[in-house]
Specification:
Layout: E1 7-11, H1 23-31, E2 36-44, E3 47-50, H2 71-76, H3 88-95, E4 100-105, H4 111-125, E5 132-136, H5 139-148, E6 154-158, H6 167-171, E7 176-180, H7 186-194, E8 198-202, H8 207-216, E9 220-223, H9 226-234
Parallel strand pairs: 1-2, 1-9, 2-4, 4-5, 5-6, 6-7, 7-8, 8-9
Antiparallel strand pairs: 2-3
Helix pairs in contact: 1-3, 4-5
Length: 236
């Protein structure tokens, strides 16, 4: 079995402990030793807001669709334990280069403003493009990011194994492939690595799952409990 250390992305922060996609959750992930944090973004009422679902009911005190609400209404909601729905700017500031930020594009019209915000942090705050990773299940969105700013790393998300394995991600000029744990096979991992791609897996929480992913040679995982990944990597 490989003893490779897994890179750990805190999934929606550390959502096994704190309200997902909040500043509180992101800060907890950093405290628990995550190498990166993953958050989800919509472009609503002209602002980049951090929330996973297209609707508000599951994770906030609100109701209705995110894209149909004003920014003032979205900010008035309780996103758990008194936390507000954060802006992507607030997430960037909370991380402050202490970890890689994986921004998952969820809604339409997200590619251009996310690209612009990353470029702004590079120009005005001295951040490097390596501080960011932009991903999506909608590969047209990450293709748009790459067209707007070739220096930004992009990650292609998949729920099932593509017929051509990782070929599509290579053709996208992706930096990484992000796969559902149910479709991870030695063949897919090997193919991605042969094409020069990093391979990350979501969402990996149990110790046996974490150990299995290490044995398969993946580069890292997304976890609701970052400390479990960190602990397992430290106990060899």
């Amino acid at each position: 079995m490989t003893t490779q250390r897994l890179f750990c992305f805190g999934h929606r922060g550390a959502c096994g402990h704190e309200p997902e996609n909040t500043v509180r959750s992101v800060r907890r992930a950093l405290e628990l030793g995550a190498d990166g944090v993953e958050v989800d973004v919509y472009f609503a009422d002209g602002r980049l807001v951090v929330i996973h679902d297209a609707t508000l009911k599951r994770t906030t005190s609100g109701h209705g669709r995110v894209l149909e609400k004003s920014f003032a209404y979205l900010r008035s909601l309780d996103a758990g334990l008194g936390e507000r729905i954060p802006t992507l700017t607030e997430i960037f500031d909370a991380v402050n280069r202490r970890a890689i930020i994986n921004v998952e594009l969820k809604g339409p019209h997200t590619a251009a403003p996310v690209t612009a915000l990353i470029a702004k942090y590079g120009k005005e705050h001295g951040w490097k493009f390596e501080n960011f990773l932009v991903s999506s299940f909608d590969h047209a969105r990450i293709r748009e990011v790459k067209q707007l700013c070739p220096e930004i790393r992009i990650g292609a998300l998949i729920e099932k194994t593509p017929r051509g394995l990782a070929k599509f991600a290579e053709e996208l000029d992706a930096w990484s492939l992000h796969a559902n744990k149910r479709c991870v096979t030695p063949k897919l991992v090997a193919d991605a690595h042969q094409r020069g791609l990093k391979f990350f897996v979501f969402t990996v929480n149990g110790p046996k799952e974490i150990a299995r992913m290490r044995a398969l040679g993946v580069d890292g995982v997304f976890s609701d409990f970052p400390e479990r990944v960190v602990h397992l990597s430290a106990t060899d």
